[in-house]
Amino acid sequence: MTSGTPIAVLVRNKDQRSKDYSEMSVAYRPSHADATYDYKYGVRAVAGGGRSSARETIGRVAAGAVAKKLLQAVAGTEVLAFVSEVKDIKANNIDLDKFSMEDVEANMVRCPDPESAQAMIDQINQVRNRGESCGGVVTCVCRNVPRGLGAPVFDKLEADLAKAAMSLPATKGFEIGSGFAGSRMLGSEHNDEFYMENGIVRTRTNRSGGVQGGISNGEHIVIRIAFKPTSTIAVKQQTVTREGEETELRARGRHDPCVVPRAVPMVESMVALVLVDHLLQNHAQCGLLTDEMVANVAVEEEHAEEGSPSSLAGAT
Fold it and tell me: Which residue of 10, 28, 112, 194 pairs with 99 in a disulfide if CB–CB is 3.0 to 4.6 A?
């Protein structure tokens, strides 16, 4: 139980292997932050990458755990992410309404579809054996998100989600709802038609991804984050030294052949932090956490007891 004082988390890294980075102290790793940190600051953290390392996300995940508890307690909101793609393998048999954290954590690749998970694991092992790396996609689903989170113009909910997600290491793309696929559809194909369900306005589809006009509409928020292959690989590559001399580099040490499974809790945490931030902002601006919120949660619980579809969750 919290005491009202600031929550502090300290994590000590007692398993460092700085000697593994000796070659990298001289030469820049291709597509890593080594060179750009040098360009900007004239100094860089060679052993582990410093602030460009995914190690820094431990603080985000710790804060995200608090945010998720607050979202669940106040609004019944659930934030769950999973690996939906590794390289060219896609998981297609996942019910976004029903998959659970237990399903996600049932295997090392954090994919709730067992068949796809095994194919992903096999793919990562093949890549590892070649000294290579690969990327993939993390899908995040937010259920029971209150209506009205977000604001027009500069504080749109999807804009803040995109910034938060893209601040994570190795991210290269962000989609919400239909994403880029929506650009290839007609308006009549893409529009989410409205209907009434138990006195609640719902949408029959969810190509908007739970956000319209920058404001949540009560349906599932569904986003996808693309992660690039790990930059540090054991394959010989051409690069240059800090002195500008061309050379070759083959990285040593412990480096994930695929960072995507590790990114799942990172994505969940950043999404939860954005949602709880907007929840608090909306409380200050519109008083969302008063009678309307209590009524929505009561309706949600009533329909859950009756076994009917969620009044706040979305159809995909």
Answer: 112
